[in-house]
Amino acid sequence: MNEVAIQPTNIITDKSKYRLLFLSVLFDFIGTLSFAIPLLGEFSDVVWAPVSALLLKIMYKGKTGTIGGIVSFIEEALPGLDFIPTFTLTWIYTYVIKKK
User: Fold this and answer.
1) In the list 24, 31, 41, 72, which could disulfide-bond 91, CB 3.0-4.6 Å?
2) How far, in Å, CA of 59 to CA of 55, rounded?
3) DSSP states of 61-80 as a string?
4) 38-77 burial string, b = 16+ CB within 10 Å, else e?
5) Could you state, in order of their start, the residue ranges of all structural domains in the chain?
6) Residues sharing a CB contact under 8 Å with residue 25, sequence separation 6 or more, in sequence order
């Protein structure tokens, strides 16, 4: 009998991959909230920039997380760039582009 065993690690990996996507979209949404509050929003970027960089570094390990964290910090710290979905772009790079 040659039965193919279901490997639970694949299921866990897929589940965590999509949880990471959900968190990425959520954190990108939080980053764009500063547009909703004129003037006060730019002050919130001062707080959100290092937090987002740290979150991205923790979520995506290695070189990808480090570079993504730096990009996220710069993107959030500079005014007018909050619309860039850095977390989601990092997820796409990690799970779509890098996989090829």
Assistant:
1) 24
2) 6
3) -HHHHHHHHHHHHHHHHSTT
4) eeebeebbeebbeebbebbbebbeeebbeebbebbbebbe
5) 35-94
6) 85, 87, 88
Which is nearest to 18 in space by CA: 67, 91, 90?
Answer: 91
Length of the chain equals 100
The angle at the Cα of 26, spanning 67 to 48, to the nearest 5 degrees, equals 60
List Cβ neighbours of 60 (8 Å cut-off, separation of 6 or more): 68, 90, 91, 94
pLDDT tens, residue by residue, 33-82: 877 777 767 778 888 899 999 999 999 989 999 999 999 999 888 877 88
What beta strand segments (E) does 19-62 contain? none
Write down the pTM of the prediction.
0.80
